[in-house]
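for the recovery benchmark. tokens below, seq after
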């Protein structure tokens, strides 16, 4: 059997039906092994970065594994941003790169290169993968594949990469004679048996004593498949929930216990709830600076903090923790749900009255700079009202990402794909391709900015070629607004390269050239009708949403302020009245 055929058979056995790739000489054997097969399909993109993001979107929707392939040299290097995105956001993905023949490879020779497009991709990606290996022995292919996929999916998931030289791809093997992989160590799954029962007794006691408990959910809830357990706990206890950027789709936003996004670009009411809680569960969140702000010592400072994470290294790394539990958030929630009867009836009515008051007084939609312009948060709210219950919503990186994260109301069954740790512009369009392939028959929605859409705009052709029902809404403020807003605050408005030197082409004409149905929204009054038309159309659509170039994300946490003290700042007397704990002095 040809080794490349074995590789494709293995991928199919993992439940993967689509490989995202851009053809190149060093992967032609692998691609040829997919030819005429009905159980797996190649999705040919126009840049390898797009293949990596598409594999990420595919894996995040199917919850299993995404696969991308690229040729040696430039192809492999173009995957790196997407590999890093999967690493930082814990997405199980298998990347396969072609390599020059082993007899052309330099190995330890003190030469820069021997074979054409030869590049040591394994050494380059090792810091951002869980496993990366150059396959030099065809009889070890089963071992490397099994080990790679096991590591990609176990513990804290992440990307793996196998670099397969061309002569290895075309080698003949006997499948039954191949060496397999058997884990001979305990992977960091963190079972319930690792936690002492007295720890849960202490947690139950803390819940009973708490007057203002809160749950902060991170991306680890979806990664662990623990959203069902989370809903069960919330239903049984009534403890309110706030979210990190990556945890926004862990619970539907019409749930009365959901109280929005926390962090530097969070909802003001959410940050006030977190600042004033007296017991905080942090579930599957790494508590990065965008959540805590630049003063992590002030984060939930009046609360007992219980932090559960699959990655031991994330515990007590950034924020002081009272109880740190290394292990599966699914196991933790399941065990806690079993102990809920010991809690009795929790009366959280006073706490709900307080945080509902925060939400009423500080809604996410802010006034427009110009009343004739489209208010971004209002537009996002309107769009979310008309999106269907099982859609994937893919956000690019920029101001629009924060407006959407603040104001898009996630329905039951919807998924929100955010680019978190890497935060790469150009994410949304290819991620939507992967999501659409993983969720056939369902619409996928892209919300992008004029800057982000241009990074991988070539994938409009991929969407059109595959007739994918992807609806693209481009919020165009004609500049790179996130950086421009930063420059306005910290660089006295010197908008170099965010406005000065930046430009955007006519996106309506470009999308028409790609064969898209295209709409333009002139004002908020006409937005609803156009949104409905775009979502009703069966094929791909691009909707251009022009914004005031001065649009800003508000509220926003600035440097050296605690999480409750967002800009534009509340009057000190007003903020003091909202705080149930002492107000910090500057």
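predicted aa per position
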């Amino acid at each position: 059997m040809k080794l490349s055929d074995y590789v494709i058979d293995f991928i199919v056995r993992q439940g993967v039906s689509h490989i995202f790739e851009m053809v190149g000489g060093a992967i032609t054997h692998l691609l040829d092994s997919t030819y005429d097969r009905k159980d797996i399909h190649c999705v040919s993109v126009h840049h390898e970065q797009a293949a990596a993001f598409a594999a990420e979107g595919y894996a995040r929707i199917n919850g299993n594994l995404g696969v991308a392939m690229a040729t040696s040299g430039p192809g492999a290097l173009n995957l790196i941003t997407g590999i890093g995105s999967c690493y930082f956001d814990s997405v199980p993905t298998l990347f396969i790169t072609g390599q020059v023949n082993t007899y052309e490879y330099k190995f330890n020779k003190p030469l820069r290169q021997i074979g054409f497009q030869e590049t040591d991709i394994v050494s380059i990606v090792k810091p951002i993968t869980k496993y990366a290996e150059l396959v030099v022995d065809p009889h070890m292919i089963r071992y490397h594949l099994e080990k790679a996929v096991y590591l990609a999916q176990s513990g804290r998931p992440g990307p793996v990469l196998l670099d397969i030289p061309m002569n290895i791809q075309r080698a003949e093997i006997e499948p039954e004679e191949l060496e397999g992989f058997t884990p001979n160590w305990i992977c960091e799954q963190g079972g319930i048996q690792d936690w002492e029962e007295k720890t849960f007794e202490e947690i139950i006691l803390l819940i009973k004593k708490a007057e203002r408990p809160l749950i902060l959910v991170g991306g680890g809830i979806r990664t662990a498949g623990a959203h069902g357990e989370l809903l069960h706990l919330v239903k049984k206890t009534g403890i309110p929930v706030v979210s990190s950027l990556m945890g926004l789709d862990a619970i539907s936003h019409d749930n009365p216990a959901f109280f929005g996004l926390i962090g530097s670009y969070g909802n003001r009411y959410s940050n006030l709830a977190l600042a004033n809680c007296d017991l905080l569960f942090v579930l599957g969140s790494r508590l990065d600076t965008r959540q805590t702000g630049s003063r992590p010592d002030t984060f939930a400072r009046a609360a007992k903090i219980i932090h559960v994470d699959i990655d031991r290294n994330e515990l007590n790394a950034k924020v002081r923790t009272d109880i740190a539990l290394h292990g599966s958030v699914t196991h933790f929630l399941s065990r806690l749900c079993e102990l809920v009867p010991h809690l009795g009836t929790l009366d959280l009515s006073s706490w709900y009255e307080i945080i509902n008051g925060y939400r009423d007084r500080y809604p996410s939609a802010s006034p427009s700079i110009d009343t004739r312009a489209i208010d971004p948060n209002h537009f996002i709210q309107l769009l979310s009202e008309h999106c269907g219950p099982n859609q994937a919503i893919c956000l690019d990186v920029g101001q629009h990402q924060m407006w959407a994260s603040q104001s898009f109301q996630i329905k039951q069954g919807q998924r929100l794909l955010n680019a978190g740790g890497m935060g790469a512009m150009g994410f949304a369009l290819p991620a939507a391709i992967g999501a659409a392939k993983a969720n056939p028959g369902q619409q996928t929605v892209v919300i992008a900015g004029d800057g982000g859409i241009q990074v991988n705009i070539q994938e409009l052709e991929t969407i059109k070629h595959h007739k994918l029902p992807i609806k693209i809404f481009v919020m165009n403020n004609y500049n790179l607004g996130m950086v421009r807003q930063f420059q306005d605050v910290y660089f006295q408005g010197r908008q170099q390269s965010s406005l000065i030197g930046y430009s955007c082409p006519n996106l309506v004409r470009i999308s028409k050239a790609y064969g898209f149905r295209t709409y333009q929204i002139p004002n908020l009054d006409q937005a609803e009708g156009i949104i409905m038309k775009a979502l009703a159309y069966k094929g791909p659509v691009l909707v251009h949403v022009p914004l005031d170039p001065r649009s800003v994300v508000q509220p926003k946490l600035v440097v050296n302020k605690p999480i409750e003290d967002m800009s534009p700042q509340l009057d000190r007397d007003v903020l003091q009245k909202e705080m149930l704990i002492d107000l910090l002095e500057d």
